[in-house]
Design goal:
- The complex is a heterodimer.
- By secondary structure, chain A is of the alpha/beta class.
- Chain A has 8 helices and 14 strands.
- Chain A folds into 3 domains: 89 residues, 3-Layer(aba) Sandwich (Rossmann fold), CATH 3.40.50; 93 residues, D-amino Acid Aminotransferase, Chain A, domain 1 (2-Layer Sandwich), CATH 3.30.470; 64 residues, no CATH class.
- In chain A, helix 2 packs parallel to helix 8 and helix 3 packs antiparallel against helix 4.
- In chain B, the strands form 3 sheets. Chain B has a 5-stranded antiparallel sheet. In chain B, strands 2-1-3-4 form a 4-stranded parallel sheet, sandwiched between helices.
- Chain B is an alpha+beta fold.
- In chain B, helix 3 packs across helix 4.
- Chain B folds into 3 domains: 72 residues, Rossmann fold (3-Layer(aba) Sandwich), CATH 3.40.50; 89 residues, ATP-grasp fold, B domain (D-amino Acid Aminotransferase, Chain A, domain 1), CATH 3.30.470; 54 residues.
- Classes of the chains: A alpha/beta, B alpha+beta.
- At the A-B interface, helix 3, helix 5 and strand 5 of A face helix 2, helix 4, strand 5 and helix 5 of B.
Chain lengths: 272, 263
Amino acid sequence: MKEIGLIIDRYHLENKVAEFLKILKSKAKVSIYLEESYLLNIDNLNFDVDLFFVKGKGKLMIAMTRMIENETSIPIINSHKGIWISINRFMNSLILKKGGISVPDFSLNPSNCQSPFPNYIIKNIIDQKTYSFQPNILKEDGHIKVSDERAIEEVEGKDEKYQYLYYQMFIKSKWEYKVYGFGEDLYFYKQLPVLVNPNKMETRREIEEIPELKEIVLRAMKILDLKVASLDFLKSKEGQYYLTDINSTPNFNYIKDGPRIMVDFLIEQTRN
Amino acid sequence: MRLKIGILSKRRGHFTGKLKNFFESKGHNTIIYTKENLCINESMLENDLYILKSKHQIPFVYAGFYAESHGIPVIPNTDISQKHKDRFEAYLLIKNAGLLYPKWYYGTPETIKKNLKDKDFPFILKPVSGSGSRGVKVIYNFGDIENLNEDILYLEKFIEGTHYTVYFIGDKICAMEKIPLKNEHSEMTRRELSKEMKQIIMKWKNQYNLLFGHLDIVVEKKTHKHLVVDTGSFPEFSNWKCGGDPVPLIGNLILNEYKKLKN
């Protein structure tokens, strides 16, 4: 029986992986490395597992991933590079754009400077913590200005982190497209944009594969070195898909039979 | 050739200001970008060269990556500068260069209390993202951990011995003895460069193709082992006492490197 190491934080362990773990334990031995109780050090990197799966994006989990990659030959999903770039919004926009993927124009500005775009959305720069998008929407002179409360809090709150705001050009789209990727197996969904209906699951529906999106998703996952991900797209009135968000730890419970798909993918990876 | 040079720096004065004056004296247009005026977007593309003086990820490292992704040289290289700033990446740089580093531990205060013993102390608490002495303090016992307002701690074994800051600019190396945990600007005493320290610096410099920088090295009292405890991609050189003004030395190295990169 193969052995899989699950690197996870308490939040995900208690709230997101019950079904996944039940299935995984029926097919593999499982060792759990909990962020809140693991002491990372160079003498503590002897593992007897066939594969690691990282469910979360906490600071210790990312450091542990980096050390495992450098010090062992055990495959790890997702890679350190993939997780790190996914949470660094500016970096993933930059790298994807260079790789030929359409992303909305973006800018990182001191908070005292004006937006370079008339219609924009301010997002948090580093998307590491587990919390959801809290948009404030302002419509003014025919323009739309959206800001995520988290991003503003990081600049103006009592625990100020930076004096910078990440601006993404606003793309008007009837639907938001969400694609889950497990290696080359992709699952396509669409829903009303969160700005139209904050309850994203209310309007979400599975859709047929869109060949154009499939090509973009596979290319983006390759560029970012991600084996498992969810990617969000908006479609402009000209018909252009823009990649707006990436998640290296997607909630696979949101897709039909998701926990089983995730487990089967991990088991398959142990055979490679 | 008259260049348009951008210096990415948290300060306008000190070494940055002197470097600007140096480049301007050579006829190059030079702008200092701080957190007040640095917008990372197409406006950055008007310069020919960026100098990454400060390595805070937001905004300076991001700006370096942005420039490089558009084909504009950044000196020192952005990736290596970022790795100097990240404690784990710096550790891997040191290890992969075949140099010694103190033992370290990374975990929540509870995990540390559960896994370490009284005899393991003292440690140095260091911020994960950082270099130099900011946020660095000695932790003598478990009681010191109780009062910290951090969710995860990085602790490095405190090495008893003699502490040095060793600068290098091109082939010049300058070894300065310092008071442990004091910053680069504190009083230091020049010491003769030992063969071992020279070897460490040459290994470091050659492994990562560095033009200048510094390593903080502790020579352990008991074993005489040389352990690298901090790395710097662009120090202030405020204690450079080995001949010559570091500003033109570094300015010329940067201009020569730019020429090489462009040819």
